[in-house]
Specification:
Pfam families: Carboxyl_trans. With 478 residues, the chain is α/β, with parallel strands linked by helices. It has two domains: 205 residues, 2-enoyl-CoA Hydratase, Chain A, domain 1; 168 residues, 2-enoyl-CoA Hydratase, Chain A, domain 1. Helix content is 33%, strand content 22%. It contains 14 helices and 23 strands. The chain is globular and about 85 Å long.
Length: 478
């Protein structure tokens, strides 16, 4: 259905959508400006293919940039075509997927092209929280264009040719590409906080298809549900042994052991992603202290502490889930905050942002305490105090102000080792045990790790019809 069937931009679309489902729109649009003899250059579709198609039968709207047209630059009509995709998607309540491969602003169109950039930004902001926005960066995405994937809900970068940057590496004082390629997919994925994954073009397109199939099409639809053939009462094996890496726990408790992780390389001490429970999509946020490789060996280890990056990652994910009424599950295993100069500069604000996200979210919220839950770090991780609907805990979980021995040393300065041990034992029994927290109503049920799936399925089914009448206000400030 396109005049550019052989272009790479169209080939990417063909890989993404169900076979023969794509319908192109605006194929006859071309550059409008005549300055600098621009009309002499051929500009089919003005360098961007737009239209709609199906992913597993779900309607999606798509734009795909063609880097072979006018060096892949964005001009006035190019930007207006992308904006029109958003207009149609908003009317139909369907996700927008963008494939970016761009040389930047078209110099021959100057302020018209700049206005087009602003128009794209405005459409993304208007669509935020209304329809899911996903993008894949397959070529250059520099300068102001890098705001586009940052405004999307999910973004991917092709591992070899994809490049995302505000300033090119050579433009950064004291740097060069050979020293540190700050535009590389790996660098951006690990550092900028808006990249969900890197990989080959085919890997990224497969991830986007899988993601669309897990998400609601818009903020007014039901939480995405599907049929479930997995046993709802299936025992979850090795949960207690593998709780340091929540990726294992989430895979084990999810339907058919499927866990779709987001922002994989960023703030690895905080894991976010989606699971299915009896066919219902559930967003998951979890503290992580260990990363295991494919062979089950420890690849990385982290302290059980909150970091600024981890808090920001969690906050953004929870806000997305709440906007689309996706239930949220937290796996809590944390005992404090990262202790360093950098944390003192950034952590308070990030912690406030995460606390705000959990507390203000009106979607169903369930917290599972798998290990330690100490101090205000625990409180911020979707505790009962800030609005969790249900809180479960494993029998060996520790919940309280701090480690019992540290508490004893503070309360009894100068005491000998024997007395400290005795007081620590008393403190743990009275103030830091899971049974003590349950007795005060802060934990709803102490469950066996093997029964995790059964109880979580039941909790989210019970919370399916949850409704909260929030106070009237324009918006919060965090």
């Amino acid at each position: 259905m396109s005049s550019n069937n052989q272009s790479l931009a169209m080939q990417r679309i063909a890989k993404l959508v169900d076979e023969n489902s794509f319908m192109e729109i605006g194929s006859l649009v071309t550059a409008r400006s005549t300055d600098f003899n621009l009309t002499a250059a051929k500009a089919p579709s003005d360098g961007v293919i737009i239209g709609h198609g199906l992913i597993d039968g779900n309607l999606v709207f798509i734009y795909s940039q063609d880097a072979t047209v006018l060096n892949g630059t964005i001009g006035e009509m190019h930007a207006k075509k992308i904006a029109s995709v958003y207009d149609m998607a908003m009317k139909m309540g369907a996700p927008v997927i963008g494939f970016i491969d761009c040389g930047g602003i078209r110099l021959q169109e100057s302020v018209d092209a700049l206005d087009g950039f602003g128009l794209i930004y405005a459409k993304e902001v208007a669509a935020s929280g209304v329809i899911p926005q996903i993008c894949g960066v397959f070529g250059n995405c520099g300068g102001g264009l890098s705001v586009v994937p940052a405004l999307c809900d999910f973004a991917y970068i092709e591992e070899s040719k994809g490049r995302m940057f505000i300033n090119t590496p050579d433009a950064i004082e004291g740097n060069r590409v050979e020293k540190c390629d700050t535009a590389a997919a790996s660098f951006q994925s690990e550092n900028n906080g808006c990249v969900d994954g890197i990989g080959s073009e085919d890997d990224i397109i497969a991830d986007i298809r899988a993601l669309v199939s897990m998400l609601p099409l818009n903020n007014e639809g039901d939480v995405y549900t599907d049929s479930c053939e997995d046993d709802l009462n299936r025992a979850c094996n090795s949960m207690a042994d593998m709780k340091a890496d929540p990726r294992f726990l989430l895979s084990e408790l999810s339907d058919d052991h499927v866990f779709f992780e987001t922002k994989k390389d960023f703030a690895k001490n905080m894991v976010t992603g989606f699971v299915k429970l009896n066919g219902m999509t559930v967003g998951a946020v979890a503290n992580c202290s260990t990363v295991y490789d494919a062979e089950g060996k420890k690849a990385e280890e982290f302290a059980l502490s909150l970091t600024a990056k981890g808090c920001n990652k969690a906050a953004e994910f929870v806000s997305f889930c709440d906007a689309f009424s996706i239930p949220v599950l937290t796996l809590t295993n944390v005992n404090g905050f990262k202790n360093c100069m950098c944390s003192e500069k950034k952590l308070a604000k990030a912690l406030a942002r995460m606390t705000y996200a959990f507390s203000s979210a009106t979607c169903p919220k369930v917290n599972l305490i798998t290990g330690e839950a100490y101090g205000s770090a625990y409180v911020a991780m979707n505790s009962k105090s800030i609005g969790a609907d249900m809180v479960y805990a494993y029998p060996d979980a520790k919940i309280g102000m701090m480690d019992s021995k540290i508490a004893a040393e503070i309360m009894y300065p100068g005491a000998d080792a024997k007395e400290i041990d005795e007081k620590a034992a008393d403190y743990e029994k009275l103030q830091s045990s899971v049974s003590s927290a349950a007795a005060r109503g802060y934990v709803d049920l102490i469950i066996d790790p093997a029964d995790t799936r059964k109880y979580l399925v039941g909790a989210f089914e019970m919370l399916y019809t949850k409704y909260v009448d929030a106070p009237e206000k324009k918006h919060g400030t965090k």
